[in-house]
Amino acid sequence: MYHLDTPTLTTERLALRAPQLADWPGLAGFLTSDRARFVGGPVTRERAWRGFGHLVGHWVLRGYGTFMITLHGFAAPIGMAGPWFPEGWPEQEIGWSLFTDSNQRNGYAAEAARACLAHAFGPLGWTTAVSYIDPANARSVALAERLGATLDPLAATPDPADPTLVYRHTRPGGAA
């Protein structure tokens, strides 16, 4: 595991925990498939492995990171969500992805994202958060809007050459 205290967030149906080696098959399956098209994929298994290392390293270097989403009572992840702020990004992000089509339309991404937003604005002490979304990813746009985020056309993006929508989340209590 890691040499730090990684939290587990729980919701009614989900447990969100830091990535572990046993998550590799599920993540590799996602990143090497067309489902990863909105997050830079699909990629080779070798590149997926480096991405997995990036996820784990973020926890080590920042003390927080993307959680693996699991259903209560099951170890295998169904997706990932969480706070993310790699070097060079203009703002702290809350992101989400589900690994398979079978987990779509169950509200899992929304449930996980709400827990991650509460964690970011609570224990992490964030005062702002965005979600960077590929303009073609209609499901993520709809989810960001269901979460109460608003499109911020003036916000900077991680790669100005890559078209990306920036949805801004508001802190509980109304302050951005």
Q: Low-confidence segments, ≥5 residues, pLDDT <50?
A: none
SS content category? alpha+beta
**Looking across the biggest beta sheet, what order are the strands in?**
1-2-3-4-5
The first-to-last residue Cα distance is 35 Å
**Count of runs of 4 or more consecutive helical residues:** 4
Binned, the helix content reads: 25-40%
Which sequence of SSEs, written as H and E, runs from N to C?
EEHHEEEHEHEE
Largest beta sheet, briefly? 5 strands, antiparallel
How does the overall form come out from the CA principal axes?
globular
> What's the overall average pLDDT, rounded?
94
Rg of Cα set: 15 Å
Strand content: 15-25%
Total number of beta strands = 8
Walk me through the structure.
The chain is of the alpha+beta class and 176 residues long. The protein is 28% helix and 20% strand. It has four helices and eight strands; from the N terminus they run ββααβββαβαββ. The protein has a five-stranded antiparallel sheet, with helices on both faces. Strands 6-8-7 form a three-stranded antiparallel sheet, covered by helices on one side. Strand 1 and strand 2 form a beta hairpin. Helix 1 crosses helix 2. The radius of gyration is 15 Å and the shape is globular. It starts with 8 loop residues before the first strand and ends in a 7-residue tail after the last strand.
